[in-house]
Amino acid sequence: MRQPIVAWAGDCLVRGDVSLDDGRISDRVNELELLTFFGATLESLEDGHEVQVDELEVERRELHLIEVEGARGDPARRLRTIEERVTLEIGPFVVTGNLHRAPQNAPLAALAGWARFVPVTDADIQVSGHDDAPRHRAVVLINRDRIAKTVTPFAIHVHDSESWEGTETPA
Is the pLDDT of residue 37 over 60? Predict the structure, then answer.
């Protein structure tokens, strides 16, 4: 079964139909090394010009983001998670959204798992250096190997014992 996909590479958007079979898009993308886009359109991020090709093979590692639409997979497989708001720099893109982790896992644990592409929900995508309004998507898959910087909006300052010298012990 072919599904329409929009993927973001370093210099262009790639639109086309990809054979993903059944199941969640994230599971299939993480299994495949090569994605074949049928009826593909490549749109330059630099000047917006488009090129169309009947078939295009793209190595998974070349993709930075993949937009996810449609089915979310088997509801029986969903787990309770904690959302963490985060801003990620991924190549020329800045994505602000929610990572999800199990309650017992450490913060940002989603970025240390086995999966190459990790889901981010309630995501805003901005292209660095462009003044366009951020593109909002319910879910995007991010290539964790391409993450250059991770910023969490809430900094937690940790004091060591030396920083408390000469002050009262906190209650």
Answer: yes
User: For the chain, which domains are there?
Assistant: 2-151 (2.30.30.100)
pLDDT at position 92 over 90? yes
Res 163: pLDDT: 52
The secondary structure of the chain, three-state, reads CEEEEEEEECCEEEEEEEECCCCCHHHHHHHCCEEEEEEEEEEECCCCCEEEEEEEEEEHHHEEEEEECCCCCCHHHCCCCEEEEEEEEECCEEEEEEEEECCCCCCCHHHHCCCCEEEEEEEEEEECCCCCCCEEEEEEEEEHHHEEEEECCCCCCCCCHHHHCCCCCCC
Q: Please compute the mean of the pLDDT values over residues 135-142 and round it to a whole number.
A: 94
